[in-house]
Amino acid sequence: xxxxxxxxxxxxxxxxxxxxxxxxxxxxxxxxxxxxxxxxxxxxxxxxxxxxxxxxxxxxxxxxxxxxxxxxxxxxxxxxxxxxxxxxxxxxxxxxxxxxxxxxxxxxxxxxxxxxxxxxxxxxxxxxxxxxxxxxxxxxxxxxxxxxxxxxxxxxxxxxxxxxxxxxxxxxxxxxxxxxxxxxxxxxxxxxxxxxxxxxxxxxxxxxxxxxxxxxxxxxxxxxxxxxxxxxxxxxxxxxxxxxxxxxxxxxxxxxxxxxxxxxxxxxxxxxxxxxxxxxxxxxxxxxxxxxxxxxxxxxxxxxxxxxxxxxxxxxxxxxxxxxxxxxxxxxxxxxxxxxxxxxxxxxxxxxxxxxxxxxxxxxxxxxxxxxxxxxxxxxxxxxxxxxxxxxxxxxxxxxxxxxxxxxxxxxxxxxxxxxxxx
Length: 423
Hints:
By secondary structure, the chain is an alpha+beta fold. The chain is built from nine helices and six strands. It has helices spanning 10-20, 22-43, 97-164, 170-205, 229-239, 241-261, 304-370, 376-410, 415-419, and strands at residues 4-8, 48-61, 77-95, 211-215, 267-278, 286-296. The strands form two sheets. A four-stranded antiparallel β-sheet has the order 2-3-5-6, with no helix packed on it. A two-stranded parallel ribbon has the order 1-4. Helix 1 packs across helix 3, helix 3 (97-164) packs antiparallel against helix 4 and helix 7 packs antiparallel against helix 8. The longest helix has 68 residues, at 97-164.
């Protein structure tokens, strides 16, 4: 049920879709995730500070540790006795090549997420513009259908008048009435198409699904005048974000490979602690400390680092293959859009010429039938041709507008459609 109606421009449709569409919302969250991964990687380079405290009541079996015999001045079993310890420990690993490469990889991961958000916004631009054009198409088809329905009713009245005058037969009235019923059914389908187009656009924009919109027909001026396939392909290579994202992903994987390769590099750190030790917090308590360096040299990790490197190298090769294919896809998209544009232009010229002829034929058939010189078959046939000509004009205009949207998207510049700008 339609609850409201409002005018809508293409810019408004795109802006609303960008604010609410799931693609942009998810990619914004992915940026948050990538920023958290950068912070997580950087945390591995920072010193860690911990505080530990404990109080024990203990007994020790010295004999279990080889400390027994008659010559020892202490018994084999000692205790019970109390121990207390509370201290702060600082650990700082200042030499760890793998962690530093992981930081660089995480930073490139953040750049990938940022570019993916821009790419998602362009994809939403394309979806919103396509839905907008589809609504325009549905409304044009609806108006053409209403004109056909009005003509059908007019022909029915003419047939009834001619029958009353004794010029036409009952079959002529029946044919005209049958044509009216068929057109009413067709009009119901066209009205449903408008409702569905409104529903799709409202869903994209995240607005109430019962809203009916009136799009602005002046929102899609041509922008491709003087543009060649070669120039458009060059623009696409420079601006298609899929290529930029793939390039950044290659660099990210390169850093991840370096991190895996550095996992068997020496690691050196500083460890220090200070605290209080005694029997209890109030008995025999003295301040104690320890300061030292740690050195870890991996010798054999079971082949783990090599396996990780091979996995990452395979992923890197996959991304390179995909980027090469995407470069070919960019040119294919541009060429396909130009083919659709050229075909749509030809269809528009043909459809408009056909519409003029169909209107003339309809006028002539109506005049002949009104004068008693023609039959209702001529009238029905002329009306059917006129309906097809109107539908062909609508479809050719829509095909042209959709080809414009596709061309802008294939060049990585959907804003050309939104702004109606020139290159």
